[in-house]
Task: inverse folding
């Protein structure tokens, strides 16, 4: 999908963090669901930013290890500033404003980030193999193990 | 739901398709353990209903409703048919073009609600199309 927007400045295209109750009038007697009080837009924007990062990585020179390593680092740090209810927290306690929906988004974000790192790692491996860059191939092996551990 | 329950509302094939697509998307998330699954609502049955109407084929008219049901059907058929099937890929592509044009050319003429829904759908489609591109690790 060719983005019809400035990829360096996607914020104007971001939806607002509104709930269903914010968007639509509630008619008397209408059955409410959790979407009436919780907005899932923050999780959507975080996911979109992940895919945008991957999209941008593929627009540059994917035969350049430096370029790929830069985007690997960005991907690895991409979840660091998520709000608590979207942040992967292992066995830590659940924040007050999380629910099943935000938990699904949290897992989706974590797995998507892992997939993107893995894909970039594969690209780096291909480039390093073609250049017979044994040092990079060796360091990728340990990076791959870290990724597997994260998974 | 309000429109669904409003008997006085005009019939609109795209809205009907949207209702069918919501059923399809819901069913696609359910586990199939019942032996009588084949006699229940299935994604394929929903898709057959929609494709039986000539007016629903193709991307025109380029409305938000048409975009929404195409996205729902893409998300549900990809579960059934796999990432490599042409049906979800084409549906995703058509929905992507419609919503991009809506936002680029018609955003200010939409209600606030439809503007917000269009933007949400745009990013769902962006993520969806790039999901189709990420090869399995």
Result:
């Amino acid at each position: 999908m060719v983005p019809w927007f400035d990829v360096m400045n996607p914020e104007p295209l971001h939806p607002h963090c509104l709930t269903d109750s914010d968007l639509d009038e509630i008619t008397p007697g209408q059955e409410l669901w959790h979407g009436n009080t919780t907005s899932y837009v923050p999780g959507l924007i975080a996911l979109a930013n992940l895919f945008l990062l991957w999209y941008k990585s593929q627009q540059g020179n994917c035969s350049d290890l430096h370029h790929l390593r830069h985007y690997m680092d960005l991907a690895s740090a991409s979840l660091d500033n998520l709000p608590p209810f979207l942040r992967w927290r292992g066995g830590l306690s659940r924040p007050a404003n999380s629910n099943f929906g935000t938990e699904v988004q949290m897992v989706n974000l974590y797995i998507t980030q892992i997939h993107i790192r893995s894909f970039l790692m594969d690209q780096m491996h291909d480039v390093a193999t073609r250049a017979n860059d044994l040092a990079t191939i060796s360091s990728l092996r340990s990076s791959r193990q870290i990724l597997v551990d994260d998974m | 739901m309000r429109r669904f329950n409003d008997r006085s509302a005009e019939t609109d094939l795209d809205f009907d398709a949207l209702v069918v697509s919501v059923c399809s998307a819901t069913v696609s998330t359910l586990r199939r353990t019942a032996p009588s699954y084949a006699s229940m609502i299935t994604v394929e049955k929903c898709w057959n209903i929609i494709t039986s109407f000539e007016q629903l084929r193709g991307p025109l008219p380029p409305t938000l409703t048409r975009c929404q049901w195409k996205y729902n059907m893409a998300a549900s058929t990809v579960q059934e048919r796999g990432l490599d099937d042409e049906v979800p890929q084409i549906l995703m592509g058509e929905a992507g073009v419609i919503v991009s044009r809506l936002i680029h050319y018609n955003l200010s003429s939409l209600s606030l609600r439809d503007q917000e829904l269009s933007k949400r759908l745009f990013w769902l489609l962006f993520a969806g199309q790039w999901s189709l591109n990420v090869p399995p690790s």
Remarks:
- Chain A touches chain B through 29 residues (CB under 8 Å).
- Chain A is about 55% helix and 0% strand.
- The helical segments of chain A are 20-23, 41-59, 65-77, 100-130, 134-150.
- The first helix of chain A runs from residue 20 to 23.
